[in-house]
Amino acid sequence: MTQRTARVDELIRQEIGEIIARDLADPRIGFVTITDVETTPDLSHARIWASFIGTAEERATALAALGHAMPFIRHELGKRIRIRRIPELHLQPDETLARGTRVLQLIHDLEVGVEPSDLVTTDDTLPTPVPRLRHEGDSLDVPEEPTVQMGRSGKRRSPGTQKRERAGGSGKAGANAVSRRRPTRQ
């Protein structure tokens, strides 16, 4: 993905969020969050991932209502942003929040002592994450881990080391490198 495509994706995501919040008056949509947009390089198509809150039935209704509103949203995008082609919008449900919350709930249930066979998997609502319970043997003091810095090249450096860089360069030549900048005339 190029930088331009990434910027267009982010712009489309922000604008669709504003259009849904301000211009759509469909009560079936409810609370929706546009989590991601991915456009093709030629900007002919865009996949829109949306996250809905509610029961499975409410999420399906909201997804269908938002799908019916996509032509209006595309038209409004054409008014708001200046690009050569407004992509066709394809709506996708984003289930990552539901999956993450479900995993947290399973971990909590296991910590409490509920057996995996006792867990009910037909729950339509999203469980709320809860704080971790203290167990016997947990230390009260949380040791502070040393921070790891990332250099320009993406390699990890330990906290005490310093990277030697040449003047105005990428730091590849070391400390004895000569600057290749032209001297300034006075």
Alpha-beta content class: alpha+beta
- Low-pLDDT sequence parts: 165-171
CATH topology of the domain at 3-94: GMP Synthetase, Chain A, domain 3
Q: List how many beta strands DSSP finds.
A: 5
Helical proportion? 25-40%
Helix count, DSSP H or I runs of 4 or more residues = 3
* SSE run: HEEHEHEE
Q: In CATH terms, what is the architecture of the domain at 3-94?
A: 2-Layer Sandwich
Give a verbal description of the structure.
The protein has 186 residues and is of the alpha+beta class. Among the domains are: 3-94, 2-Layer Sandwich (GMP Synthetase, Chain A, domain 3), CATH 3.30.300; 96-129, no CATH class. Helix content is 33%, strand content 14%. The protein has 3 helices and 5 strands; from the N terminus they run αββαβαββ. The protein has helices at 3-22, 56-80, 96-112; strands at residues 32-39, 45-52, 88-93, 149-150, 156-157. The strands form 2 sheets. Strands 1-2-3 form a 3-stranded mixed β-sheet. The protein is flat and about 70 Å long. Mean pLDDT is 77; it is low at 165-171.
